[in-house]
Prior knowledge:
Layout: H1 2-9, H2 16-22, E1 28-37, H3 40-43, E2 51-70, E3 76-87, H4 89-92, E4 100-104, H5 106-117, H6 119-129, H7 138-150, H8 165-181, E5 189-193, H9 194-200, E6 202-204, H10 210-221, E7 227-229, E8 235-237, E9 250-254, E10 266-269, E11 310-315, E12 320-332, E13 335-342, E14 380-381, H11 383-386, E15 390-393, H12 402-405, H13 415-418, E16 421-424, E17 431-444, E18 459-471, H14 474-518
Antiparallel strand pairs: 1-2, 1-18, 2-3, 3-9, 4-5, 6-8, 7-8, 9-10, 11-12, 12-13, 13-16, 14-15, 15-17, 16-17, 17-18
Amino acid sequence: MSMYLRESVIIQDGSEQFKRFVNLPQPLNFKVYIFNVTNSDRIQQGAIPIVEEIGPYVYKQFRQKKVKHFSRDGSKISYVQNVHFDFDADASAPYTQDDRIVALNMHMNAFLQVFEREITDIFQGFANRLNSRLNQTPGVRVLKRLMERIRGKRKSVLQISENDPGLALLLVHLNANLKAVFNDPRSMFVSTSVREYLFDGVRFCINPQGIAKAICNQIKESGSKTIREQSDGSLAFSFFGHKNGSGHEVYEVHTGKGDPMRVLEIQKLDDSHNLQVWLNASSEGETSVCNQINGTDASAYPPFRQRGDSMYIFSADICRSVQLFYQTDIQYQGIPGYRYSIGENFINDIGPEHDNECFCVDKLANVIKRKNGCLYAGALDLTTCLDAPVILTLPHMLGASNEYRKMIRGLKPDAKKHQTFVDVQSLTGTPLQGGKRVQFNMFLKSINRIGITENLPTVLMPAIWVEEGIQLNGEMVAFFKKKLINTLKTLNIVHWATLCGGIGVAVMCLIYYIYQRGRVVEPPVK
């Protein structure tokens, strides 16, 4: 039985396992829930935000791997993964992609927070991109004089003198040009459709001129994956548009050859064994636990699971490995398995007292955080992962510190609905149901001398939460039972029949032996 299973999980060119590896036999479920903001005008005046969850908006996520090559010994395989999303209207009903929402203006908020944190670098970028015509405008001359004063010194807006007339004039220009860059915003929230917010893109930088054009060029050159240039030169923000299509990251994973327990374990990402996202352990660059790549990509899991064990998955979307812990035995439509779930070490236990302060990148100014720069429990700063000041929590801030939850109304955390879990067939590592559940947020706050933010409360503002996983359908359940469970039963019967047969033979031999020992040997006749 062990040999049969060992052979069945190994990825070999042309095998059934290889075909399932290249094309997942069933699309994943990708569900998006949006936090619709119901009091955006009042928030601009300092009120506590009120949100209402709408959704799910359900998409079928198809994954196809484009294999590059096997290693010489056949123990590794490299590939690029292409992902395609199809909206599932039936599963989403009564919601549609044309639903109108009021949601956090992620791209404008991100720009202003980065502006506050790194004014020197931003304005140096602006100056490098201004053409000779712009060099004649008073605003740019002021910008250059300001740059001469602060060049080489990374400062926030608050760190630069309140009485600096050059900065004051510069901020006047910035405030005036926000209208041209972000389509004359009236608040920090945008009214748009679900289709635009998630995939097609919320357009901005539409035919900008002067300093507005320099700002747009800076945003375009920042390299954010969520912002794409359109055919007319404008820009568009969407949460997942960049994920819909050809992949770019090159994965190298173990095929299981020589060690089936390691099948699908990620060996390298873009030719590197580790990330370069989080803080490292020392000035010499020793890789920290935060930058380690562990586990599979969650499309499948290691085989031969044992009760009480744990396993890792790696999520490129959040640039980290996540440990899953055994919870209980389960039955899924007659298929036995184990349930695994995340632990406190995911985003609750983060900081020097937990030996993972490498996650405390401390990239956010004037937000709700601990004195040591780490965020409070239940929140993780993804700034260095996503090149944007995005904060990760569990859905509805489940388990997060009251420092964050008390500032938002409308959250309804529920462990049954919002906890990450997966049910796995213990022998093969096949996922039966469950998946990742995470929420993306941004801090909303007042930024000194930026008019549109002047009365904002400081809050961790939820935008969306997603569930990405699987629920094995009837066709796959039948296939799984036929190919594995029934085979295992047959092998088990053969195993026990052989064992019983062996025991029967042994018993008969023992009886015969005792019989022979008990016979009276008569002396020969003389």
